[in-house]
Amino acid sequence: xxxxxxxxxxxxxxxxxxxxxxxxxxxxxxxxxxxxxxxxxxxxxxxxxxxxxxxxxxxxxxxxxxxxxxxxxxxxxxxxxxxxxxxxxxxxxxxxxxxxxxxxxxxxxxxxxxxxxxxxxxxxxxxxxxxxxxxxxxxxxxxxxxxxxxxxxxxxxxxxxxxxxxxxxxxxxxxxxxxxxxxxxxxxxxxxxxxxxxxxxxxxxxxxxxxxxxxxxxxxxxxxxxxxxxxx
Length: 232
Fold this sequence. Notes:
The chain has 232 residues and is mostly beta strands. Helices cover 2% and strands 65% of the residues.
């Protein structure tokens, strides 16, 4: 199976982007709206309903991308930047064993940007830099097993690569680093009539990690509940 898509998008700056005002966050009334174009091309191969493999190449180009930046003095301000993202996504699914399904997904992403030429008082010759919060590598593995009594167990492992990016030179060129992390999740469920009862544990090994600088995320978390299905 071959597939391809192409599309254009537009996003206007929000009221907060333009006019937010407090001691640590200042809007920018000179912001321009984002315009972008993106495309992808994919190949999928299926073998006797037991093995599915997919490869997808993607690319997007954004003009005047709106991003809040820290000026090095704890003050945040949105600026326009020109951004491109490109990468590849690989997926492999296998259900050759009875009641057991597996899925492996890998994504490589390169996302870089430079300040737009129309930003006043900012030189227009900055080189492209890696954007914040865009890890190059992500890997996800999921295993589902349907046990006797129709009890479904799902184990998921998520890996996010370490991140490193540098501020624009006029902000001091500070280097930011976030360590990589691996999370393991477990979910056990059973369907009963028009409902599903489940128990889950997120981040089983109580890993301490952050996906945004200075904002630590929860450790081990337990939850449970009932999902009701009004229609089949």
